Amino acid sequence: MPVETRTFSSRHFFSRHGVLSEWHPQYEFRPGQLEMAEEVERALKEKRHLIVEAGTGTGKTLAYLVPAILSGKRVVVSTGTKSLQEQLFFKDIPFLQEHIGRELRVCYMKGRGNYACRQKIYDAEKEPILTGLEEVNDFQIIRKWEQETDVGDRSEIKQLPPSSSAWAKLDARKELCSGDKCLQFERCFITKMQQRARESDLVIVNHHLFFADLAVRGEDYGGVIPEYEAVIFDEAHEIETVAGAYFGQSVSSYMVQELRRDVLAVSRRKGFGSEDLDRTLTMLDETARRFFDCFPEQEGRAGYYQQRRFLEEHNKEYIDLLHVLELTTADLKLVKDASDETMPLFRRVEEIRDRLKFWMRAEDPRFVYWIERRGPGVNLEATPIDVATLLRERLFGAVSTVIMTSATLAVAGTFDYLQNRLGIASPRTAIVSSPFDYQKQVTLYVPHHLPDPRDADFIDKAVEETKHLLDISEGRAFVLFTSYQQMRLFHERLSFRIDYPCLLQGTGPNTALLDEFRATKNCVLFATASFWQGIDVPGDQLSCVIIDRLPFAVPSDPIVDARVRAIRDSGGNPFFDYQVPEAAITLKQGFGRLIRSKADRGILAILDNRITAKRYGQIFFDSLPDYAFTLDRAELERFFRNV
Which domains can be identified in the chain, with CATH numbers? Predict the structure, then answer.
């Protein structure tokens, strides 16, 4: 029987004999869920910021959704992934809607690249933009779906390959969007998405969209999320990284290539192409290639503060690129009666030029400047060293209630690290314990006999130790690494020596590897950072997690290096103020892969004995849930015998 929402609070909903117990056939009272819900309810009512760590199994999703719905405010919920967005919208919200006595006005929003552009689809029927039979087949799928969908989200098309090149030509990214000048504006999926959001009390987004929106609010072509009174961040431990990416500046060889491709395609499709424009675009391609070829050839990412020297040696290549960008702008201005089509292109040329000038000047000490080369592509990046000031001004100072939750926010029982990194002052805080009995369900093992991971003989002995552990657990394991090189080395040495199926990250899409792991008895997955969080394998299929070393961020990474130097220059201790807490949170994420239900049991093995040998190791121990601990491998054999 539906219940009128005004008649109950979070306590009425989550208490032992509350409303939820009447709705849910498998209901189990969780004190932590009630505690968290009341904290969220109080923060929304009192217009306070809140940090709440909710252990695995707490039921935190409903614990923040229910008080958000009851608040009567427009609340934005921001998740770490699009898949969690979809879980909230398609699973949790319908469950609540079934029982709450009024219509819930809820929508979800994703980035523009997730939605189809109707005008592009209609143009593709008349103009030759598709290449090859595969694109033509994909287009037929998309065209049929476009006639049926109300939302336009590509996740609805289950038969469309994730790597479809046809979709990339038909999506609604703003680079070619003419806004309200478009013939399909009223029917546009982006227009409809924004309209639904304006009519909703609860708007579900992801972190990337939230911070992309926050970074451009107030600009002429600014945000898409409507005004809100509160925001709830799920998986809030990711905020610093995501915010840094969107408050930064970047320009790349790919951006120039895509600009050239789009100008050429639009000019031909709309009939304003000319020999002069074609020559300009050819020059743009050639000058951009010469400019980006001047940067170091090594793969990967590295800090870069040699702009002045670069300009001394390669000023001609830089000036030539700026000149051709200005020439491209001039050619677009000459187009008659095509302002709606050329305006997005014109904006992109200006944006590339402005970003390029910003990066080459490298004058702002608040940013770390770095380059990344992947194959033929070169990215020039400028990332804020400290996002705390930006977030304090644009988020915590502008929104009355910001709620941050995750299973991994506290370090050694406090939120000092998170508060300092994000710039949030005097929030309410709470640590809500997991309902799991980690003392009985988990044994943490550290092989104290192994050498320091920095020693030359560590690899050989750690490989042997890993083999012993996999034999004890009979596979059923994630072996997680802090580097791809280490991952590949362990896999190469172990895969032919153990009697269990082995999977290696990189040999297929992560989702496919995870599905295969779940479906394959006694499987072992060798993986890196992307499998440290957000992975859910309940049951005995995953009974062992082996971590090669404490997950300190790579010190040579330009962003890590810049933040370390900034802390040192301000009189702090970067190792204890930044590197250890960050690694402790990452380790908690790895720990969280193991126990996903009350029935799960398993071992967590950390092959890095610095956790017991070094003074800072206690911070890691104090950050993990209450667990059984051993230095004796024989204890693990007894652990599995006592299942």
Answer: 5-105+389-432 (3.40.50), 249-384 (1.10.275), 438-641 (3.40.50.300)
